[in-house]
Design a protein that fits this description.
heterodimer, A: 587 residues, alpha/beta, Ubiquitin-like (UB roll), five-stranded parallel β-sheet, extended, B: 312 residues, 9 strands, 28% helix, globular, binds flavin-adenine dinucleotide, binds iron/sulfur cluster, binds FE2/S2 (inorganic) cluster
Chain lengths: 587, 312
């Protein structure tokens, strides 16, 4: 460590630290122009000068470039220093009088009118001040070396070779990013911080997939990352203190051997487009539940505000329950979560937009802990709940005043009247349905599905998280619609069941099971397609089928099915059964 | 003295005789090794020549064809008495074969169908003190082992030269196989099929096809292409001849030794690949099999568990 004094304050810094950095640690401001923290210092502009005490007297040095030395005494604001900085700025302003950053520093230094005028006077605000940051960024950081200084003296300027369009430029925009005057502009829009639904690509080369990503770590988009194009840059590696950025990582497929699997693949939501009467996809401002969840999210496209397509808040909002649920034409079951999230919407939308709220329900299913209380609260907040299924959503009319408004038609079964309610926004609480790949996943794990399409548990009361395949468990909406508290409870139960087997260390199986008599097996694989427990596999090397006796439940399906009689069921062989029959019939 | 052998045909198409002739030059080896004492299709020996032989004097009789009339029954019994070994030769003798499909009807029904309004044959006809008789036409066709004791079976419609050669070798060799053996491998045809590896692990189909509806790919398992190939249920031994000719197996080698009812197993093999739980859809898929008896019991109806159709 090195001790030095800056403006009378003593400090300790690591060897190699520049005076500029040391001063910044002490919160001492020093103006800079040709300096950028990610680029090697160049000391071109001399705006950052400070005074250092030497044996022969005081010396002015550029602080961005000079390293701290033991016992140094530095002054950053002496009259010499300020005079030198003013002179630097006076000379630059003589040539570039309107560049904002120069004028800002000049104002800070109390420089009112420069004394000089230059024959090269350039009135532009975005003139190039020849700091060289762009050239160095392109060369040192990006590694593309697409631009450089051309000519000398008063002709010096930043240019591509021969002023032609450069083939080395990878359009990364690093030059524009570092340019202090915006002389170099990059036409691409800066999307940082914008919600992903507005973009086709990630918004930066290294990015957080979503605001609530789990695990919350950024990833690198190879197509936009400079390093993957030039081999250079790696500035993210430099600034990441824990050293977590690794450009050598590649996607890999990992095979993990496990003894048990919890299938919790969740759900899909019902697409309400086929219910043409609700106008989803046809009229503006008709949304599904999930779309509204996104709108209400503080990192969503509206920053959590409830807005119509025209950017205005809605005056009235209709919330339609049971869209696609409890409906003979779509799903007969109740999706269980919609009534409650519909009430949640009623509460949040009212709170955020002040809109009048109308909930249209068939039956209000507020079954969970604290749910009925929440329902009362929403009623007290003034939500209008109407018992009746919405017949249709239509455009309200063509007058200017009604423009964009929607009309909800329904029968209010509590007052026995047909009603038409004008709203600005309609929220369809669409059903929860089995994932579209549930069939493949089911086949993979040997799971059956109940008529509603969700995975079937072994027993609804006695074994609710196990399945007919040993070692395979189900939890969450994969097993049936349910809300988060129920999902969590079910998942914990499944985890406990799996832990129990692990800690026991062994499993017991029934002695009744099937076995292939390999010398007779033709390898036709009739059996493997039929086994309800996926216990049979084909052994390609020996060209025969094989029963995994840990999975076999001894149901006998394969024994009966084997067209060549090569499968035998222990305890129930043909010989045993024939002997039994003979015994019975001998009486 | 060379061992004596006899060949006889019952209810058959003649293909099994053809199969013996098909041995080409090997037939000469056979002729050198044995004395053929009775072979109506090729040699002029008469029934009374056989009757004249002492019991057990023939080493082996090869009887093809099912038993459908009283004449066949009589000669089968005669050859049984004169022979040490009786071989049911070909699938008709073994299981009833194609003539066995007549069990879907009975004598009356068949005559009505065949002779319609013409002159139906009568068993006994007298004219001017002379009489002419025909053998009795049975209502039910049976396999050979239902009327006489059979020692060995040579499967096939007809048996292939290789199977016949192997069978003769086994019979002339020193170690006779155990009585009742079917002289062919005891695995299903898929084992010998060149297309076996192309069969998917879990074969599930939404559609079955008939052979005239598709030009089948030459490499892929025919069942996987939706053709009702009975290879999984049929005894190997033919070396997948039909498959090599791009035609599905129809089951002429019969079942393996562990299977009692060939058609039931074949049916279960085909049913197992149908990918539906919906009654209507299953019915639609099965429309591709308009003749289930002719498909699954083409060669084995007489020896199936049911044996024949119940006539009202
Ligand atoms: C609009 C709306 C609002 C809701 N609001 C609430 C609320 O306020 N409170 C509440 O309690 N509940 C609410 N719910 C219900 C809640 O969303 C569900 O209860 C919960 O998400 C179900 O959790 P899960 O883990 O079973 O399924 P999911 O949340 O669907 O999770 C399943 C996960 O499995 C992954 N996956 C799928 N297939 C595979 C595969 N083959 N391999 C690996 N991974 C796979 C998926 O990517 C997903 O991450 C709401 C539902 C909707 C539709
Ligand atoms: S069904 Fe029988 S012959 Fe076919 S693969 Fe299975 S055990 Fe082997
Ligand atoms: S007995 Fe049942 S569980 Fe066992 S391998 Fe055969 S089909 Fe599968
Ligand atoms: S089903 Fe037929 S085609 Fe397929 S492997 Fe078996 S014998 Fe060959
Ligand atoms: S900032 Fe130090 S010389 Fe330009």
């Amino acid at each position: 460590m090195i001790r030095l004094t800056i403006d009378g304050k003593t400090t300790e810094v690591e060897r190699g630290t520049t005076l500029l950095h040391a001063a910044r640690f002490l919160d001492i401001k020093i103006p800079t122009l040709c300096y950028h923290p990610l680029i090697k210092p160049f000391a071109a502009c001399r705006l950052c000068v400070v005074e250092v005490k030497r044996s022969w007297g005081m010396e002015l040095v550029p602080s961005c470039h000079v390293a701290c030395q033991e016992g140094m005494e530095v002054s950053t604001g002496s009259s010499h220093v300020l005079a030198a900085r003013r002179l630097v700025l006076e000379l630059m302003l003589a040539r570039w009088p309107n560049v904002p950053i120069l004028r800002k520093y000049a104002a800070e230094l109390g420089l009112e009118k420069p004394r000089f005028a230059s024959p090269l006077r350039d009135e532009r605000e975005d003139a190039c001040i020849l700091c060289g940051l762009c050239v160095r960024a392109c060369d040192e950081v990006v590694g593309a070396s697409a631009i450089s200084f051309a000519e000398r003296g008063i002709g010096r300027r930043v240019a591509t070779p021969f002023n032609l369009e450069s083939e080395s430029c990878i359009a990364c925009g690093a030059c524009a990013l570092v340019c202090p005057t915006s002389y170099i502009k990059f036409e691409a829009e800066d999307h940082r911080g914008k919600p992903p639904e507005f973009l086709l690509d990630p918004n930066t080369a290294i990015y957080m997939p979503t605001a609530q990503a789990v695990p919350k770590v950024p990833s690198i988009d190879r197509d936009s990352c400079i390093h993957f194009q030039t081999g250079g840059c790696q500035k993210c590696v430099e600034v990441c203190e824990p050293g977590a950025v690794n450009h050598k990582m590649v996607d890999e497929e990992i095979e993990v051997e496990v003894g048990q699997v919890l299938v919790a693949i969740g759900y899909d939501t019902f697409d309400p487009t086929p219910m043409a009467q609700y106008a989803y996809g046809r009229l503006d401002n008709v949304y599904t539940g999930l779309e509204v969840e996104r709108m209400l999210n503080s990192t969503g496209p509206t920053g959590g505000r409830v807005l119509l397509k025209n950017g205005k808040p809605p005056r009235a909002v209709g919330i339609v329950h049971c869209v696609g649920s409890r409906d003979e034409n779509y799903h007969r079951y109740c999706s269980r979560v919609c009534c409650m999230y519909a009430l949640k919407f009623a509460h949040v939308v009212k709170e955020r937009s002040g809109a009048e709220i109308y909930n249209f329900y068939i039956d209000m299913r507020a079954f969970g802990k604290g749910y009925e209380e929440f329902y009362s609260r929403v009623l007290n907040e003034g939500a209008n709940v109407i018992r009746g299924k919405v017949a249709e959503v239509v455009q309200a009319g063509w007058s200017k005043q009604k423009e964009g408004a929607l009309l909800l038609r329904c029968e209010d079964t509590l007052i026995g009247r047909f009603r038409e309610i004008p709203v600005d926004m309609v929220i369809l609480c669409n059903a929860i349905e089995p994932r579209r790949d549930a069939e493949q996943v089911g086949r993979l794990f040997g799971l059956s599905r109940s008529p509603d399409g969700f995975f079937l548990e072994r027993h609804p009361k006695l074994d609710p998280v196990a399945t007919m395949t040993d070692g395979i468990f189900v939890a969450g909406c994969a097993q049936g619609p349910k809300d988060i508290p129920d999902v969590v409870a079910q998942a914990c139960a499944a985890a406990a069941r799996m832990m129990a087997t692990i800690s026991k260390g062994e499993v017991e199986i029934d002695p009744v099971r099937a076995e292939v008599m390999e010398e007779y097996c033709s390898g036709c694989r009739v059996c493997s397609a039929l086994c309800p427990y996926s216990a049979i596999s084909y052994v390609a090397e020996r060209k025969v089928s094989q029963v995994n006796s840990a999975l076999c439940k001894g149901c006998g399906t394969c024994v009966a099915a084997c067209p060549s009689g090569a499968m035998t069921g222990y305890g129930f062989t043909d010989r045993q059964i024939n002997a039994e029959l003979e015994g019975v019939l001998a009486v | 003295m060379k061992p004596k052998v006899a060949f006889y045909w019952c209810a058959s198409c003649g293909g099994c005789e053809e199969a013996v002739v098909d041995l080409d030059e090997k037939i000469l080896d056979v002729a050198n090794a044995v004395d053929i004492v009775f072979w109506p299709v090729a040699l002029d020996f008469k029934e009374h020549d056989v009757e004249a032989m002492p019991d057990g004097s023939i080493l082996a009789s090869f009887i093809n064809g099912a038993i459908r009339n009283s004449d066949q029954l009589k000669i089968a019994k005669l050859l049984r008495a004169k022979s040490q070994v009786v071989v049911a030769f070909g699938v008709c003798a073994q299981l009833g074969g194609i003539p066995g499909l007549a069990n879907m009807s009975d004598a009356k029904g068949i005559f009505a169908e065949v002779y319609r309004d013409g002159v139906a044959p009568v068993r006994l006809h007298r004219e001017n003190g002379h009489s002419l008789s025909l053998p009795e036409f049975f209502d039910t066709v049976v396999a050979l082992d239902r009327v006489i004791d059979v020692d060995y079976y040579v499967p096939g419609c007809p048996p292939t030269p290789k199977i016949i050669g192997d069978a003769l070798g086994a019979l002339l060799g020193s170690n006779l196989p155990p009585k009742g053996t079917v002289l062919a491998p005891d695995q299903a045809l898929c084992e010998q099929c060149p297309r076996k590896d192309t069969r998917p692990e879990k074969l599930l189909l939404k559609e079955l096809k008939r052979v005239h509806q598709v030009v089948a790919d030459q490499q892929t398992c025919l069942l996987a292409q939706g053709l009702a190939c009975l290879g999984p249920a049929t005894r190997a031994g033919c070396e997948a001849m039909c498959i090599r000719g791009n035609m599905p197996c129809t089951g002429c080698f019969g079942p393996t030794s562990r299977v009692r009812d060939f058609g039931a197993k074949a049916l279960s093999a085909i049913a197992s690949v149908i990918d539906s739980n919906d009654e209507g859809e299953i019915t639609r898929i099965l429309e591709a099999l308009p003749d289930p008896v002719g498909t699954f019991y083409r060669y084995s109806l007489p020896s199936s568990l049911l044996g024949r159709r119940r006539m009202e």
